Structure formats: structure tokens, C-alpha cells
Amino acid sequence: MTALLEVEGLKKHFPIHKGVFSKVSGQVYAVDGVSFSIGRGETLGLVGESGCGKSTVGRTLLKLLEPTDGTIKVGGEDITGLGAQAMLPYRRRMQMIYQDPYASLNPRMTAGEIVGEPLIVHNIGTPAERRERVAGLFERAGLRPEAANSYPHEFSGGQRQRIGIARALALNPELIVGDEPVSALDVSIQAQIINLLMELQDEFQLSYLFVAHDLAVVEHISHRVAVMYLGRIVEMTDKRSLFEMPLHPYTEALLSAVPIPKSSARGRKRVILTGDVPSPINPPPGCHFHARCPYAMPRCKTDVPALREVIPGHFASCHLHDGGVKVPLGAAA
Amino acid sequence: MNPRQPAPRVMNGTAPESPIESAQTVLQIEDLQTHFFTPVGVVRAVDGVSYALKSGETLGVVGESGCGKSVSALSILRLVANPPGRIVGGAIRFEGRNLLEFSEPEMERIRGNDISMIFQEPMTSLNPLYTCGKQIAEAVALHQGLSKRDSWDRAVEMLRSVSIPEPERRAHAYPHQLSGGMRQRVMIAMALSCNPKVLIADEPTTALDVTIQAQILDLMRALQDKYGTAIILITHDMGVVAENADRVVVMYAGRKVEEANAAELFDNPGHPYTKGLLGSIPHLDTAARTDTKRAKLNEIKGMVPSLFNLPQGCSFAPRCGLASDHCRNHKPPLEEQRPGHWIACWHADRVLGGVAVGAA
Ligand SMILES: Nc1ncnc2c1ncn2[C@@H]1O[C@H](COP(=O)(O)OP(=O)(O)OP(=O)(O)O)[C@@H](O)[C@H]1O
Ligand SMILES: Nc1ncnc2c1ncn2[C@@H]1O[C@H](COP(=O)(O)OP(=O)(O)OP(=O)(O)O)[C@@H](O)[C@H]1O
Ligand code: SF4
Ligand SMILES: [Mg+2]
Ligand SMILES: [Mg+2]
């Protein structure tokens, strides 16, 4: 697979101001050195703790936010420094499905206008062709045709999410950053949308960066998965290795906290991680996870573990594997 | 305000002598109808829904996107925008009194105090112009009469309880400076800050990873155990329903089509829609991994009917593999097919008997 997207050392820091006019009093290290690539026709799943920087990665690589540092290449071309005008052709190739559909849909436009807008912006088709395209997109996203005339507030949460999905598909993009694209949908419609995304991918070699909290969904749609923790990728590999042999303690905790949709799950306790969630304003020294890690060793408090290829194709940043791969993670030294 | 005894949690959902049976009903919704009057017609978003809630109990509400879960929840607090929305029928009894007969100032005292709500989309209810700490502090000051200083401290403490790191600093952040899941947790903090008798949680954990989700659900349970809070848990996450709900209501196209104790619902779904829904859940299993080609997920084919124009008979008939002419022409009544298990389907006995409900 040739890489469509290559991200190298990406950083995004947000300044914190104390009061409206006063000086910068600190930084939120939202994304702090993230590297990955996505091939044509490939889905990279991105998971991690709430607030760890997933949405910021998505928005920065589409240059909806200016990166603080690092490079972003699309089809081998460096787009990191491009201005708005030069970005235009890339905008057409890369689309985003936003996490918060309510905040990302213009309340004064009808659903039909919202989905058709990218076609107008990029000057595609005649009005009649555009109407037809919009109707087709509505159908594929599971929206009723008459819904085209309604405004965003007239839809349910899940219906609004589908408007966002239809809009992202309008331009036949090459890369879609889906930020929790199916979390507002019931499981049946979720299945329809995931099946649709997989079909489109197989047909047009689409690439996805798929951010989600539902690990079953991630497992289903992804080829590879990256796990983030406090601004950094801590593990990345093909999905099979990740789910069968997680090499980072955070990934292990995440996998064992998945809720089970069965009657026997009643009253199950699954709080695995205790301890304070570390802050991206004051990231802890050493391994970001050390205060909550059940296996933490003295060196974890001081030395940053590098993300390295512990097993061919399987990257992890954890000192447990410094002297060779250690599985299971809790095994005696 | 009488402190009610919290009902003990039932660990085995099949226990016949559930102690919850004896707890007192706090909220009862009777034949609720909420419609939207739009230029192109009347949307029957909620079309005759009833359910009851006892203190200390968690009622799960599930159903197809757009079936009226949020609108029925908003109706309880009388927050449906009018126009175009209007509650055209039914009653909402809170501790025996019909909220639909309350004046607006009386309702104001109920909201956020006796009954609070975690809204599905945080940005619809957070004010972008105020810091998160200020919004929580104001709610606390309003309902609990704390001083400015104390309510700010309480806000910070609430932010800490929902696992926001460095809450003292983050309390000064505006909503847009937080991640999706952090915004959701700010709203949860606000809803929990006044120890409500009824908590309506509309998709409270969609933006949270599973470890923080587990902590938040634990927090809600602790509140429930301490104050006997009754919880309406609206969610698409069937795992969350299985772990937390005592009973489950399944909605389809503005109506309740099934209600049962949670274990019964998962083990013996009696409505073809429920069965299809459970069959669409993606499971974390090796099947998806070992296949080099990604398998298609099961889905229920077709689309929900237009709420302008509901079919004459069963609303699910156009998508149901068991639909007969009788189904297409007559609305199935909600009937108690087994003790405590209510189903609106002409063929419920066959579904309970295990017949396949393949797509139409
Ligand atoms: N505009 C901003 N100004 C300041 N801080 C910000 C801004 N946007 C995001 N952040 C901070 O950056 C961090 C990462 O946020 P991000 O939205 O990327 O998280 P996320 O992984 O998508 O989380 P979630 O799963 O909850 O959506 C958070 O601590 C957030 O508060
Ligand atoms: N202001 C409005 N005008 C017209 N129709 C509306 C309005 N608000 C909601 N509706 C309709 O009412 C129906 C029920 O919406 P509701 O938000 O209750 O769905 P839901 O079950 O919560 O779905 P989801 O799971 O997607 O959140 C939807 O079909 C929606 O289109
Ligand atoms: S580096 Fe140390 S603290 Fe970090 S995850 Fe590995 S064992 Fe735990
Ligand atoms: Mg996010
Ligand atoms: Mg809803």
C-alpha cells in the first residue's frame, strides 16, 4: 500500500491565557509528537482516553488548526505550510465527519443545502445534477428524501450525525477523518453506516482515520489501530495483534473495560484504572501513564519510553519491553 | 423533602421478589403524545408512550435513531420548543402531581433540582460565553443557595469527580476549549451537582472512552445508592444497558414496542425489532479479526417510516420478516405476554418461541 497520508512529529499546543487580555500562563500539550501513515484503501483506527488529543490530531492534519510543529504529507506532497488558497485542492480530497454534529451544521441551512454545499463551493455539476447527487447521498446515509427540506434542529442527534456523514461523502474524497462518526447512532443504523463506509472503501480505495470509543466497532472497520494517551501514541499495530496481544498497559486496561452487551453483565464492576487522570497542561515526567499503571517501575517515573518496534510491525512505548518483549505484561521479571 | 430509603440493587435481574417492586413510584408517564406542527405536516414524534419509574431504579430506553427518545425525555421537563412542538396528550406525574398542569415558575423549581437532565448534545445546553466552572457554580448557587465562593468550590469538586484533570484550572476553560468527552462530563457534573430525585441521562457516555465511562457510570450508581435517585438511561450502547438497567423500554417510531426486565429482554426479546437490534451489535470477538476480509455487520434493512405518515398497521411491518397482512392493517396492542414482559407485536409468541425474524 502506498501511503496517502504521512504525519511526522505532529504537535499542537494551545496557549492558556489568564483573563482575556493578559499573558499566556501555560500551554495545553494536546498533541505532542505524533507520527503515523495511512495507506490508500486503509483504515487506521484511533482510540484513547477522553481528552487525549484524538480530535486535535484529526483537525490539525486537515489543517483546520495550524500545527505547532511537525509535517503533514498528502500523496507525498508536504502541505504543512500551505495557505488557504493552496490548500483548496487538498480540501476537496480530505473531509471530516465532526464529533459534535450540532455544533458543526449551519442552523440556517436545510439539510439538503448542507449536503450540497461542498458541491457548490467546488463548482461541481449543474443544479439538477447536484440535486440528484444529494438525493443519492441522503439515501445512502439512511435519511428519508423529504428530510432534505428540514433544518438541523428538526432532527434527532443520530439523524444530524448522518447529515454530517452525507456531507463528507459528497465530494468523493480520498481521505475521511471520522471523529466518532457512528457513536450517536443506534446499533442497526451504525451497522448500515459501517457497511457503507467499508463498501465505499473497497470500491474507491478510500482511506479513513477512524476515531471511536467503541472498540468493537474499531475492531470491525480498522486494518491497523493506534492508541493515544495524553498527546502521544503509545501503541500502534495491525488490529489482530492489538486485540490479541496488547503490549502497552493502557491498551490492556482499555480492552478489559469494554462493557458486555449480555444479560450476565448486570451489575458488573469494570473500573480498572484508578488514580488521577494526568493533565495535558502539566504532563508528568517519564511515562505519562506511570501514576496509574499497575506495572510501573522506578525508571517509569523519570525516563520517557520511546515508541519503538517491539515486535516486527508492533510499536509500543513501555519500559516493560526494554529487555525484550514481555507477555503477559504482568509476568514476573 | 423526605430522604427516601435507597432500594438495594438487584444483582440477579431474574429474582422474582425484586425489592424494587416495593419501592415508590416517583415518575409516571401516561400515554404521552408530543407532536411537531410543521408547515409540511404533523410529526408524531411521541405517539402514546407510557412508563413508570421507581426511586432507586434505572430504566433503560433504547430504540432506533429518531424514534422519540429525546423528545419524550424533554417533554418530562417541558423543554420541547413550542412552536413547533406541543405536548398534545397524556400526563407526566412526578410524586403524584401532573407536571403538565404546573405553572412555568413551578416548573423552574423542578428543573435541575428534583429532576435534572444530561442532554444528548452538550453544546445545545452549555453556554459558549461562560466558563464551565461558572456554569456549574451558577446552577449550584441557584438550587442550593450556596455563596459564590462555596458554589465555585463545589463546581471544582464536581469537575474532579467526573475525572477532569486539574479541575482548579480547567474550571476557567470555555466549552470550546474542552474535548467532546470533557464537555459531556461538564454537563454530567452539572446534572449531578444537585442530587436530583430523577436523573434523565440522554446518551451520557457517547463521547467517553470505556475506562472513563466506567467511572462515570459508577459515580451515577453511587449517587443512586446514596439518594435513591431514579435514573432514565437513554443509550445506544447495549453493553451499558445490560450492565446498568433494571428494566428496559424499547421504542420504535414514537411508540413503546417492548418493555421487560433487562435480563429477560436480552435473553428473550419478544419484538422483531428488538431482536434485530440485538443482532446488529458488533461484538469484540475473534471472528472479525481472523477474517482477512472484513465481515459485513448485520443490519435491519430499510428505513424507519416517515413520522408524518405512519403506516396504518404495525409501524415496523415494512421492515419485518414476519409481517403478515394482518400486521399491515392493524396496529398491534401492547400486551403482557409473560409476567412483566410487554410486547406490541401480533407474532410475539413466535418471536419468543425463537423463530428467525430475517429481513422483509
Ligand atoms: N481550542 C482549544 N483551546 C485550548 N485547549 C484545547 C482546545 N481544543 C482542545 N483543547 C485541549 O486539548 C486536549 C485534547 O482535546 P481533544 O478534543 O483533541 O481530545 P479527544 O481525544 O478528542 O477527546 P474526546 O474523546 O473527549 O473527544 C484537551 O485537554 C482539550 O481541553
Ligand atoms: N423541531 C422539530 N421539528 C420537527 N421534527 C422534529 C423536531 N424535533 C425533533 N423532531 C423529530 O422528532 C423525532 C424524534 O426525535 P428524537 O430527538 O426524540 O429522537 P431520538 O430517539 O432521541 O433519536 P437519536 O437516537 O438519534 O437521538 C425525529 O424523527 C425528529 O426528526
Ligand atoms: S512504561 Fe512503565 S508506567 Fe508506562 S505503561 Fe509501561 S510499565 Fe507502565
Ligand atoms: Mg474528540
Ligand atoms: Mg436523542
UniProtKB/TrEMBL annotation, chain A:
What family name appears in the similarity comment?
Answer: Belongs to the ABC transporter superfamily.
Question: Which species is the source of this protein?
Answer: Reyranella soli
Q: Which residues form the ABC transporter domain?
A: 5-255
Q: Which GO terms describe its biological process?
A: peptide transport; transmembrane transport
PANTHER family linked to this entry: D,D-DIPEPTIDE TRANSPORT ATP-BINDING PROTEIN DDPF-RELATED (PTHR43776:SF7), TRANSPORT ATP-BINDING PROTEIN (PTHR43776)
- List, alphabetically, the SUPFAM superfamilies matched: P-loop containing nucleoside triphosphate hydrolases
Is this entry keyworded Transcription regulation?
Answer: no
> What is the name of the protein in this document?
Peptide ABC transporter ATP-binding protein
Question: What Gene Ontology molecular-function terms does this entry list?
Answer: ATP binding; ATP hydrolysis activity
Q: Identify its membrane topology class.
A: Peripheral membrane protein
Keyword check for ATP-binding, yes or no.
yes
Gene3D superfamilies the UniProt entry points to: P-loop containing nucleotide triphosphate hydrolases
Q: Which UniProt keywords apply?
A: ATP-binding, Nucleotide-binding, Transport
| InterPro entries attached to this UniProt entry | AAA+_ATPase (IPR003593), ABC_transp_ATP-bind (IPR050319), ABC_transporter-like_ATP-bd (IPR003439), ABC_transporter-like_CS (IPR017871), Oligopep_ABC_C (IPR013563), P-loop_NTPase (IPR027417)
Q: What is its main location?
A: membrane
Subcellular localization(s) per the UniProt record: Cell inner membrane
Q: Which GO terms describe its cellular component?
A: plasma membrane
Which Pfam families does the protein's record reference? ABC_tran, oligo_HPY
